Amino acid sequence: MNDDKKVDRGLGQNQFITESMSLNLFWLRIMKEHSLFLRLGLPCDQRELIERAMFFEQAFDRLLERARRIQGGTVPVVRALNEESIQLVRELIEYKTRLLLMMLECRLGGFNYPLLIDHIRREAIYFVNHLERLQRGEMTNPVTNLLLEEVFWLRIMADHSKFIKHLLDPSERQLVETADDLSEELDELRFQAEDFESFLRINPIFVPSLGRFTNDAIGAIMNIRDFKAQARNLIARCEIISLIPELLADHVLREAEHSLELLRRLQR
Predict the structure, then answer these.
(1) What phi, psi does 111 have (nearest 5°)?
(2) CB–CB of 196/206 below 8 Å?
């Protein structure tokens, strides 16, 4: 079947274009910044790995600029952008996997936690999976989609709180404690989201308790969003003692805002 006909019979052309462009404009910037963070955390003697990270940083920057120029494009143009994004992100996933394995085998040092590399690899896989679904013109059950997004984003937010905790100076005791509390709350909610996903996997229908849970999940993500905003502002004013660059603080705040917008839309 012609690819454009798949879109016509599934998502519809407007939805295909809108969702594709939204994904690309958000995630291509995230992938570019992941490449930068990886490069800065690598040991200075790992020239080949550093150059590879720099390649990804530049490649994602070019692709992001292209995406910005083609907003409002046709289905074939957007489909071509999606395919180019898929191929580049797959290469980045392979690179992240290589780094993670090297670290787990004690063949690579530096300042990137293995959990951080796994975290950003999960995000890259998420991006590719969504683009491939769009390329196939597939619709998803709204309840299944909501639950999978909740499982994904609650884990991402819990990871963020752990990274923030361990990048704060130990003297920032109140902020460290807040990050720890947020991590625990988000982990518990993620486990509950996994339970709901199991409960409703065979018959994915909306039940009242899922509505209550989704409100709880959104509330918890709002809490960490506010904490991240506070931290970013403190970093910008040099009023916090930490190892967190301002760009990283802004990066994780954007992800929190994105997840809230997505979950609220799926909740309707």
Answers:
(1) -125, 20
(2) no
Q: In whole angstroms, give the CA distance from residue 150 to residue 212.
A: 13
Domain range enclosing 207 = 140-268
Are the C-beta atoms of residues 235 and 244 closer than 8 Å to each other? Answer: yes
pTM of the model as a whole: 0.95
The rounded distance, in Å, linking the Cα atoms of 213 and 216 is: 5
Q: Using CA atoms, how far apart are residues 74 and 17, in angstroms rounded to an integer? A: 8
Taking alpha carbons only, the member of 92, 90, 70 closest to residue 81 is: 70
On whether both 117 and 106 belong to a single domain, the answer is: yes
Q: Are 230 and 187 in contact (CB under 8 A)?
A: no
Single residue among 117, 138, 159 that ends a domain in this structure = 138
Question: Cα(147)–Cα(164) distance, rounded to whole angstroms?
Answer: 26
Rounded mean pLDDT of 244-253? 98
Dihedral class, residue 110 (left if φ above 0, else alpha if ψ from -120 to 50, else beta): left
Same domain, yes or no: 170 and 69: no
pLDDT confidence of 8, banded at 50, 70, 90?
Answer: very low
Four-CA torsion 111, 114, 120, 122, nearest 10 degrees = 180
Q: Is the pLDDT of residue 1 over 70?
A: no
**pLDDT digit string, tens, across residues 100-129:** 999 999 999 999 999 999 999 999 999 999
* Separation of alpha carbons 255 and 160, rounded Å: 10
